[in-house]
């Protein structure tokens, strides 16, 4: 088409081309818009890797960036294990997996139920995974699970009484990898094993203070308790007390009543959760490197941190809209702006795919930071600080120990109550059936004879 237009302009003059000058006026703006879109789209992954027979475990692999990573790796032949909060029998999850198998021409895509907001669910799966002889093959763990609730919404606690944002973004990954660590270390020395952490640039401005986690949980628990009290209910997900660390031990203190007033919005722990995740990533690499293999070979597992950039994922959309209809309306009106400055999920997945496929990261000591498909320096000194890593590791272990013990007691009491209720129903049913049978029992022989 351009050739006939040029020919017409030469032979018949430019006046013969309709709207030519209007098009020429708009052309520079179109070029600028295309250049901006290309710039904000970020770098493209150009690395390739043979993924056939590779076993890849992915969290957050059903939406957003995680879904694009899953699709890309599955199309290259990798065996995918999706960790989802829904059971494998869920109809929507089953249809999603079937569609993914069909679109990638890969039948080796499975799902395991792992609720990242539940310590018990994580331990159940991870323990089952490592309880196998010989050790199961595991080539890669990609952690894309993320929680970013709008700041305007009330904070939530998990079933274990932990702030949901901090639990999903950090503590769930710590708990999962701590248990899976033997499986990663047991892989053959020649195997290229990678653990990919997805983070966010918000870690740069985060305040390194773990007391925020305790305060957020205490404030939220107190608010929930007060709200249920106002509604005439009793009990809560938390007990209104906070967990604090004193002299290296976790202790429980009663929360102040006025703390409940601050719980409506709370302080965002998103930046702290991402900073904690990166501090743990460095500590986990040192933990893997410190392991002495029976064959005296170096550890084959390497940790890689990735900042995929800001993308138009469902989580980002929910954060921008504030979780409200008015926010959604504003988002729809301003959508061209977000389309321009935010990456698509596919573009956001490029750095993650680069970390998973680049051959260079199959060698070395690990602990790299990737952004825009290239290695970058860390912006916070705490990430490589051994004291910060040790403090975070001990804090996390003790917090998990306390919360798992409390949750175990609650589950035992709930099971006991369930058993008592079932027994009462059973006794009631048997009592009613026996009384009915008694009414239908015929009289004695003498009474029948008298009749």
Automatic annotation (TrEMBL):
Gene3D superfamilies membership: NAD(P)-binding Rossmann-like Domain
Keywords recorded for this protein, A-Z: Membrane, NADP, Oxidoreductase, Transmembrane, Transmembrane helix
Feature: compositional bias, Low complexity: 429-438
Record carries keyword Membrane: yes
Keyword NADP: yes
TM annotation in the entry: 319-341
Region ranges (Disordered): 221-242, 417-451
Bias (Basic and acidic residues) ranges: 417-428
Pfam families to which the protein is assigned, alphabetical: adh_short
Any GO MF annotation of the entry: oxidoreductase activity
Family note: Belongs to the short-chain dehydrogenases/reductases (SDR) family.
Name of this chain's protein: Oxidoreductase, short chain dehydrogenase/reductase family
Source organism of this protein record: Aspergillus kawachii (White koji mold)
């Amino acid at each position: 088409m351009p050739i006939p237009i040029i020919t017409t302009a030469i032979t018949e003059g430019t006046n013969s081309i309709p709207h030519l000058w209007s098009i020429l006026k708009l052309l520079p703006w179109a070029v600028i818009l295309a250049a901006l879109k290309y710039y904000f789209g970020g770098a493209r992954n150009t690395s390739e890797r043979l993924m056939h027979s590779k076993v890849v475990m992915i969290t957050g692999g059903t939406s957003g960036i995680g879904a694009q990573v899953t699709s890309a790796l599955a199309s290259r032949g990798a065996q995918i294990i999706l960790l989802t909060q829904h059971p494998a029998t869920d109809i929507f999850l089953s249809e999603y997996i079937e569609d993914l198998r069909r679109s990638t021409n890969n039948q080796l895509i499975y799902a395991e139920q792992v609720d990242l907001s539940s310590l018990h669910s994580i331990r159940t799966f991870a323990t089952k995974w490592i309880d196998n002889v010989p050790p199961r093959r595991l080539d890669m763990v990609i952690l894309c699970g993320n929680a970013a609730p709008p700041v305007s919404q009330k904070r939530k606690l998990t079933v274990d009484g932990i702030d949901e944002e901090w639990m999903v973004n950090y503590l769930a990954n710590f708990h999962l990898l701590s248990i899976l660590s033997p499986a990663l270390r047991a892989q053959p020395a020649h195997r290229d094993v990678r653990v990919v952490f997805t983070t966010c640039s918000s870690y740069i401005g985060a305040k390194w203070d773990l007391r925020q986690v305790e305060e957020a949980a205490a404030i939220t628990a107190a608010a929930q308790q007060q709200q249920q009290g106002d509604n005439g209910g009793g009990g809560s997900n938390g007990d209104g007390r906070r967990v604090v660390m004193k002299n290296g031990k976790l202790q429980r203190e009663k929360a102040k009543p006025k703390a409940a007033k601050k719980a409506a919005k709370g302080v965002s722990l998103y930046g702290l959760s991402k900073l904690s995740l990166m501090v743990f990533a460095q500590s986990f690499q040192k933990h893997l490197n410190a392991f002495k293999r029976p064959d005296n070979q170096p550890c084959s597992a390497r940790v890689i941190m990735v900042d995929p950039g800001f993308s138009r994922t469902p989580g980002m959309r929910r954060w921008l809209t504030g979780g409200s209809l008015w926010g959604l309306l504003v988002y729809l009106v301003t959508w061209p702006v977000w389309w321009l400055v935010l990456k698509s999920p596919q573009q956001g997945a490029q750095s993650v795919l680069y970390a998973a496929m680049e051959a260079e990261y199959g060698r070395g000591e690990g602990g790299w930071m990737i952004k825009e498909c290239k290695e970058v320096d860390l912006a916070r000194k705490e990430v490589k600080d051994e004291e910060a890593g040790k403090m975070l590791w001990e804090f996390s272990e003790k917090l998990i120990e306390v919360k798992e013990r409390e949750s175990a007691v609650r589950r035992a009491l709930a099971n006991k109550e369930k058993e008592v209720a079932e027994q009462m129903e059973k006794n009631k049913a048997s009592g009613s059936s026996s009384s009915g049978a008694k009414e239908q029992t015929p009289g004695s022989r003498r009474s029948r004879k008298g009749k």
